[in-house]
Structure formats: C-alpha cells, structure tokens
Amino acid sequence: MNGKPYGYHNMLFSWIDTIDENYPPPLDAHVVASVMTVWNQMQLTYAANMWNEALNKRLGTEGLDLPDLLVETEMRGSSFAELLTIPEQDDWVYSDGKSASCVAFVLEIYKAAGLFDPISSSIQVTKFTIKDAYSLRFFENNSSRLPKWCNDGDDVELPFCQI
C-alpha cells in the first residue's frame, strides 16, 4: 500500500453482489447508471477517478469513459447491472496506487497470515463489507475456553480477549 488512495475505487462496489437484491428501494442499477451519467457530465474528472477506472478493470479495458463503458458492456451481451456485480480483485492496482478500504486492509493482513487457508486463493478481501468482516469467526467464542488471565482485573467480562 503506498498510502495515497483510501478504498473508494472498490468500496463503491463491495456491497453489490446481485443484479437486483442489494439496492434499497427505489434504487437499482438503472438509477445508479443515470446518476453516474449526470455526474459524468458535471464532474468528468471526479467521475473518471471515482468509478470509470474501476469499471474498466471489470471489463479488462483501459481509458474508456462512462458512455464507452456502457456501449462496451452492451456489445459484450451484458448489462450495466451485471457489470456492477463483478467482484473487485485484490491485485488490481489503480493509476493512483493500490486501493483498499480499512476493512480490506485488515483482511489482507489476515489473508497474508493464512487465516483464510486453505481457500485463500478464492478469497477477494476487497469484496468484503464491514459486516462481513465482523461476522467472521476467526477467534474463540466460547469464553470458558479462554485463558484465565484474559478477563482478570477487568470491570466487564468480555466474550473475547483483547491483547
């Protein structure tokens, strides 16, 4: 990580897993495309930085602007809704560097430490949301199996050890 970008390139897409079941009503991929199109007209540089590069990564293209991305998607027999569901890949590097949100950064550390073994190669941590991360069960959740010293001296007994 070079410290420049946060994770906005992939954070925008991490919660979109399905074509139509992730959006709060009345939002859907058509509304997202419409907002992106208007924003593209008003703030071209911002739009290119925010999502055009990420959408290009999903198509395996480079430098296409939003209208061209929409045309390319249709030419491939796909839809914009399907394009949005393509998972972020951990090894994608954007023009301003590698992009990872705070949760993806922590999960990259977990992945490098082997916590996802033996399925590490099939895990894309940039696809995880914060809820996904805190729902993982890497740690002991049976307080009777925690070391005795774990909660010694604590005012509140926690179901885990914090070191």
From N to C, what is the helix and strand string?
HHHHHEEHH
Count of DSSP helices?
Answer: 7
Radius of gyration: 20 Å
- Count of β-strands: 2
Q: What shape does the CA trace take? A: elongated
Low-confidence stretches: none
Topology:
Elements: H1 8-11, H2 29-42, H3 44-59, H4 66-75, H5 80-85, E1 93-94, E2 97-98, H6 102-112, H7 130-135
Antiparallel strand pairs: 1-2
Helix pairs in contact: 2-3, 3-4
Structure notes:
The chain is mostly helical. It has one domain. The chain has 7 helices and 2 strands, in the order αααααββαα. It has helices at residues 8-11, 29-42, 44-59, 66-75, 80-85, 102-112, 130-135, and strands spanning 93-94, 97-98. It has a two-stranded antiparallel ribbon with strand order 1-2. β1 (93-94) and β2 (97-98) form a beta hairpin. α2 (29-42) packs across α3 (44-59) and α3 (44-59) runs parallel beside α4. It is elongated.
List keywords for this structure.
two-stranded antiparallel ribbon, 163 residues, single chain, 41% helix, mainly alpha
Summarize the structure.
By secondary structure, the protein is mostly helical. It is built from seven helices and two strands, in the order αααααββαα.
